[in-house]
Amino acid sequence: MLKTFFLTCSGVDKNLINKCSNGEQNKYAGIGATVFFTAVMATIAGSYALYTVFDNLYTAIFFGLIWGLLIFNLDRFIVSTIKKSDSKWKEVAQATPRIILAIIIAVVISKPLELKLFEKEINQVLLSEKNQMTLDNKTQIAQQFTPEISKINTEIETLKNEILTKENETNALYQIYISEAEGTAGTKKLGKGPVYEEKRAKHDASLLALQELKTNNSLKIAEKEKSINALIAQQKSAETKSQPIISNFDGLMARINALGKLPFFTSFFIFLLFLAIETSPIIAKLLAPKGEYDFKIEEKLSAVKTWATQQMQQREQMLNADVTIDNKVYKDITADEELYDYKQKMARELMKLQADSFYKKQQKML
Asked: What parts of the sequence cross the membrane (predicted)?
């Protein structure tokens, strides 16, 4: 049962292989088993690769099975179409396009399994990349908001400096009128005279102006601080919205790129393993000498080719004979006087009918 299944996988002619020896059957059963297990590996690899894309187990398995059947059909076709020949160079030339196709298939099959085998290392690479992307993302977003925030902070500092300047001016006026009252400066007369009153009025006016400036500038500063808080909130919101995109940066292409950053040789040897598996049926057929099955299939093809050639030649001879006979028959008929007189009589009748019909049409028109 299992042997029959593997023979089916190898693409051989069942009627011919059953007439061959047991050793010949085992050879092709081994080739069929290689084809089958290559398709199994392709199904597993395809399912994992598609799972990283769709993130759904059932969808991945479904399309993975389709991919495995496709690889199975391709491998079966490749093996079954390689025919043994007396010239090894002819066989190699015949197999070269199929080997190239097998290499492509091996690359496609091995890559998803490499992703699974090196999953932990790939995750580490992706984590480092995500962290760097997060820092770069924050820097880029900050570049959008920092100039405006810096501008508002400058305006706040200007308002605070206005208050500070006014405070210094008011304090200076306070020291002037106090010194005038103490007699240590100004008129140097002890007591509160007219000059003192004048300087006290200047201080009081400056103090009122300072209080008004503090009130106005405090309101302006509060509004500008609200603007800064709003910009900071927008910046954090932009960072929050973009973070899921960075967190989900672990798709198939990202993992393949991360795999490329790992040491080359380990991944390369895995590829060589799958290449050996994929090309083994072809190499086996190339290395194996002509067997009983090959002679039988060659004999059958030769018989079909001979039969087809005979049929074409027979049909060509029949056509030539039929043309010759027809030419002779119609040549003999041409010389028959009776047939000539009959056709002449019918032609006269036909011409009379045409003349009568033309005459009737002319009468209707007039």
From this structure: 28-51, 57-74, 95-113, 258-277
